[in-house]
Amino acid sequence: MRILHISDCYLPRLGGIEVQVADLVRAQRGAGHDVEVATATPGEDLPGVHRIVARLPFDLPVHPFGVGHLLRLMTSRRPDVVHVHAGAVSPFAWMGARAAARAHLPAVVTVHSMWDPVTRGLYHALRGAFEWQGWGLVGTAVSEAAARPIRAVAGRQVPVHVVSNGLDVSGWRPTGPVRRAPQGEPVHVVAVGRLAPRKQPVRLLRLLREARRRADLRATIVGDGPARASMERYLAKHGMTGWVSLPGRYPRERIRELLAEADVFVAPAPRESFGLAALEARAAGVPVVARAQSGVADFVRPGKEGLLGRDFDELVSSVVRLATDRELRELIAEHNRGTEPSRCSWPVVLEGFERCYDQARDRAAHRTYRGR
């Protein structure tokens, strides 16, 4: 199958969408598909990657004439399906969806983010202006939590399926015994993610501060981003530098090593559409604490793979419970080690997308037939 992925952002940028799309491309090529990528991100030449770049300030991944460029690319390459990857607002990606509709090509749109009320209002307006619900699209979201607001906007004309982000589960499987924090040693709490204001990392520090009043713990927060300076100020102000570490960004190999030393993983962002770092922790056998309203709830059940909280206070209580209840912590760790999150494995994810591609081809054929 010839597949053309379209994404505003792609390698060499490193973010959730960029890494997940690159991994999907690698997995599909490994399965024998002919896969190419179109992106507005500048960078070095990569095999099968078409960079449609405009000279804009800060290397913004946008092109004012993206529809025309993408339409010409689709006409020359004639993919069997166009797979568009969108965040909350992704102008170049949606230009790809529009170009696919004009070229009468099957198109699947994966939304990788959680639509908040403002975003929902924007897409309601775009629906009225461009009537994108009539383009024959098939939508996917990375979790049930992310799918609900999309379905509310798209209506019945656009099917929206849930296809999880993919993970090489075997690569995260732990090899040693379940970690048992020595008596008298603080429980090690770990968080991994971009330190961006929308992830509310300072709120994470407040959560840890509240939890430490009731439990003996230390914390490592891996990642980098624009909120790092405000986090450092908070740590200094509240005397937390002795037990909270901000080591910066880690490669995947170092994250695996860190998770082998972790007792609890925390993913408290309220609008987490999926939570790939939390999935990696769960696959590595670490109990996970996360928001009940987030996409993490798709693969973490209360008392099974971790604990879920509906608000700040419940998250604090969940961290404290796991930090103070060794039996529960080790029971969850044993469960996570003994069961794989199979719905997030690449074979299952690829099968899910192939079903969506089949549906998109059927819809495109029906749309073309009706238009003749």
UniProtKB/TrEMBL annotation:
<keyword id="KW-0808">Transferase</keyword>
<dbReference type="GO" id="GO:0016758">
    <property type="term" value="F:hexosyltransferase activity"/>
</dbReference>
<dbReference type="InterPro" id="IPR028098">
    <property type="entry name" value="Glyco_trans_4-like_N"/>
</dbReference>
<dbReference type="InterPro" id="IPR050194">
    <property type="entry name" value="Glycosyltransferase_grp1"/>
</dbReference>
<dbReference type="GO" id="GO:1901137">
    <property type="term" value="P:carbohydrate derivative biosynthetic process"/>
</dbReference>
<dbReference type="InterPro" id="IPR001296">
    <property type="entry name" value="Glyco_trans_1"/>
</dbReference>
<feature type="domain" description="Glycosyl transferase family 1">
    <location>
        <begin position="184"/>
        <end position="336"/>
    </location>
</feature>
<dbReference type="Pfam" id="PF00534">
    <property type="entry name" value="Glycos_transf_1"/>
</dbReference>
<protein>
    <submittedName>
        <fullName>Glycosyltransferase involved in cell wall biosynthesis</fullName>
    </submittedName>
</protein>
<keyword id="KW-0328">Glycosyltransferase</keyword>
<feature type="domain" description="Glycosyltransferase subfamily 4-like N-terminal">
    <location>
        <begin position="15"/>
        <end position="169"/>
    </location>
</feature>
<dbReference type="Pfam" id="PF13439">
    <property type="entry name" value="Glyco_transf_4"/>
</dbReference>
